[in-house]
Design a protein that fits this description.
With 138 residues, the chain is an all-alpha fold. It has one domain. It holds the Pfam family AWPM-19.
Length: 138
């Protein structure tokens, strides 16, 4: 799902670059110039697209870390997966904060699903930290 979010964010950035306005060297900036200008939607769409793109990329990295955790399945990989999961969820919530249209419902669904996964993985993190002992213990 994070791949889809990154694709949608990348598409929106591409549209903004293609349809954006250019201020010539002898022209002044507009009175209501917005540094994150998107020709689609309202002024909040720019922030939504940027945070969605960042959340998508972090979410993809999180999926790779999660696959590594499934491969090794130990305490240390569990902690890394939990931290990346929480970071991806926080960025997705930040992107969801800018949602105003029903078109971005995908981000809301992704946020809720990621939250439940965080609850599940944090429930597994409770307990004592395993300690490996090396050498002969007499």
């Amino acid at each position: 799902m994070y791949i889809i979010l990154a694709i949608i964010g990348g598409w929106a950035v591409n549209v903004a670059i293609d349809r954006g306005f250019i201020v010539g060297p002898k022209l002044r900036l507009l009175a209501h110039f917005h540094p994150i200008f998107f020709p689609i939607g309202n002024f909040a769409i720019g922030f939504f697209v940027l945070f969605s793109l960042i959340a998508g990329v972090v979410g993809i990295a999180y999926a790779i870390v999660d696959l590594t955790h499934l491969r090794f399945w130990n305490y240390h990989s569990l902690q890394l997966a939990a931290v990346f999961g929480l970071l991806a969820w926080v960025l997705t919530v930040l992107a969801m904060g800018y949602v105003r249209n029903h078109v971005e419902a995908f981000t809301i669904i992704l946020t809720v699903m990621q939250f439940f996964y965080i609850l599940a993985i944090r429930g597994r993190c409770q307990g004592a930290v395993p300690v490996k002992q090396h050498g002969n213990v007499a």
